Structures are given as C-alpha cells and as structure tokens.
Amino acid sequence: MKDLLEKLYPLNRVLVHDDIEKAIELITERFPDKCYKIHEYPVGSNVWTWKIPQRNKVNKGVLKDEDGVVYADFDNHPLYLWSYSISVNKKLEWNELKDHIYTNEKCPNAIPWYFKYYEKTWGFSIEHNKFLNMPKHKKYHVEIDIEFSNSPGLKNLTYFIDYGQEKDFLMTSNICHPYQVNDSISGVVAAVELINRFHKKPIEKPTKNLNFLFCPETIGSIAYLANNEHKIEQTSSGFFTEFIGHKDKENFILQHSRNKEDKINQVFEYVLKRQNKTYDVISFRRTNDEGNINGPGVNIPCPAVYRGNLTNDKRIFYDVNFYDEYHTSFDNPDIISELKLEEAVDLFEEVLRIFCSDYTPKQIEKGVLFLTGLNMHTSFYDLPEMGVFIEQVVYMLEGKHSVFEIANELNLDYWNVKTFIDELYIKKAINKLLV
C-alpha cells in the first residue's frame, strides 16, 4: 500500500487538475480488472446547490521582498501557494500583505496547506518561524499567474463489485489534498487493497454489492450523488475513511453516522472489540464526505473511521487530535506505517464481510424448531457451550433480528451464528429477509 501512496504523494491534487487524472490513472493500474468507471462533470454545472469549479493550473507563484529575497515559491513546493489562488502581480506594504499569509504555529517549521476553492482570493503559506523573521518595513512583490479553464471537468472514479444484489454498500475516500498523505490518500490505498482482497476472496453468500468511490473532497461526493440519484435508494449504508496510517497513532476514532442507532455503527464497534482494537466513539459531524452521504435528502447511514486521540476539549471539532502534521508539508510518506495501514484494512474487510452478508432469518413454521428432525440438535449435556448457543439462537428467528443483530446481542461470533442459520435455510426451516 505504501508504494502506491508514495506515487500519489508528489501530485498537486487539487479539485480539478491534471494531477487528479494522473492519480486516477495510478489507482486504476492497481485494480485487478476493468470493473471501474471514470465520471466527468462539466465545469460550471450545478450539482444540487453546489457548482463544479474551474480547472486550475499554476504557472507561477512567488513572494519576494524589494531586495529580491524569496519567501515562497510554488516551484520549490506547491504548498507555498494557496490552492486555487487567483492571479496577482503587484507590490504591497507589509500591512496589506500579512492578511494573505497563512502559517501554522503548531508545526512552525512546516509549510501549511491552505485552500480557497470557492473564494476569489490569493495567498501564500509560509513556515511560521520564517514568517516571524520577515521584515515589516520592506515592500513585497507578489507574482501569481494562474490559468483557469472549463475543460475537462471534475473527475470521480468508482469501482463496482457486482454480486447481483438489490442493495449496495458504499466506501468513499478522497483523491485530493496536494502533497498530503495520511490526510486522504491513506484511505485511497486502503480502498484499493480492499478491492484486491475481495477479488481474490469474494464475499460468500453476499446480500450487498460493493461500490467504491474515489473523489475530490466534498464536491466529488456531491457531484456523484446528484448525478446518480437512483443510487441513493439503492445504497443501504457506507463509510468514509482517512487518517489511518500514522506510525504513532494506534487508537481508532469511530465517528457515528447521523443516527447513532444505525446498524453499520454497531458492526464497526462489534469488530473493533473482537479485534481488540483501542478506539473511541464521537458523535456525527460533517468532517468530510460522510457529511454529504448522511446529508438531507440522502440519508445514507455513513460513519467515518480515523486514527487519533480524544482531547479534554468538549467542543465539537476540538474534541479530537488526529495528528500534529495535519495539513502541513510534514504530512509525507515518512510518517506512514505499512503495518498501521494493514491493521485498518483488516478492520474494514471484516466489517464489509459481515455487513454485506447479513440478512434477517424468519422461521417458516410456528413453535420451537425440532432440531433433531433437521439433524442439527446438540444436547446441552453432551456439549454445554454448543447447547446453550443453539437454545439462545432459536428464539431469535422471528424476522425481527438480523444474523448480525443476533450475534451482537448474544455476544457470539458472527460467523458461527451465520453458519448455523445458513444451515437452517438450506434445510428450509427459515426464509431469508434482506436488510
């Protein structure tokens, strides 16, 4: 996974840009087959209340003082220039310039990433320590040359695993965020790994198809949903992920979907516990694309999964510290652990295998099942543990609990419960109700 991440890293992956298309090409090269689709949305087109932004190309972005000392140069590092700055060529006094400079005191030697995707403005990001030493009495020359164009449009990528089911499960990750790694593309490489795992070992007896969406943050998922409204009703649930590869971050953060009672939240907690992961739970908020997927009129249950730690601050968005290098030039491949990525993918794989094979069993005949007649009875006196297991399960087959809900409520292994209930279906003692 880390090798793909390292290839995606040195790309200026802003919303509509050549490097987004290069990223898509690198991702599709890792797919096991051609079950993918590239979606394009025209610049200026309306996607619900949003509008697809213009294509962006930077020709120059330099900030220097009157003596020719350079403080920021896009060619030296793209993060020096605010993403989607407009063109400017003028000389400024310090008091006018300082409002167009962004720094990060938390990482004073790093270049922070800052963006103004939907505002017609400009600016530079500078290391905080360098900013402190910039002369206040000198004039500065700003040279920013940007090309905005209307073609091609914004690109999304989807990969669909078709199990022939009526409902889909949607996993979403972001392909944007220039020169950032843990932020966003850690989720991308996890999704690519999952696709390859499910290609090698498909879900047994699936009840959901799998749909993977790779898109620029926010506008990408809105564009996809607005142009595929038939998919909204078809999608039973999903999740979003990023921030999962930091070498020093062990703890998972599960951000619930908008309705904390949604089954997908329960499946994540069930697997986190069974895999002995340390984790915390936070309430729903629009941190990323999960906000659109849970959004008004869409309402697809969609938690988000990160790594990070809770703070003592109770204010929303201040209650979690994901990692100190966030949105800086220090968010690079050096902070990423292949092991942490693999641990996250193991978690996601088990969640998807459970959720996408789950169904609700409903007993066909009334009364307690005659398991001896089905050759499925185990005596409590012979095998006490198995006997208790069976006695618990057979009272939850009235179409009110899914297989997962039975396993979760009784604190049993999902796959053991499913094997037993699948056998009841094979022997025509129950019907399957899809959930």
What descriptive keywords fit this protein?
435 residues, alpha/beta, 20 strands, eight-stranded mixed β-sheet, four-stranded antiparallel β-sheet
Word description of this protein:
- The chain contains 13 helices and 20 strands.
- It is an alpha/beta fold and 435 residues long.
- It has an eight-stranded mixed beta sheet with strand order 1-10-12-11-13-16-14-15, sandwiched between helices. Strands 5-4-9-6 form a four-stranded antiparallel beta sheet. A two-stranded antiparallel sheet has the order 2-3.
- Helix 1 (2-8) packs across helix 5 (185-200) and helix 5 (185-200) packs across helix 10.
The parts where pLDDT drops under 50 for at least 5 residues are none
What's the β-strand tally? 20
Largest sheet: 8 strands, mixed
Proportion of strand residues:
15-25%
Distance between the termini: 33 Å
Helical proportion, percent range: 25-40%
Tell me briefly what this model is.
The protein is an alpha/beta fold. It has 13 helices and 20 strands.
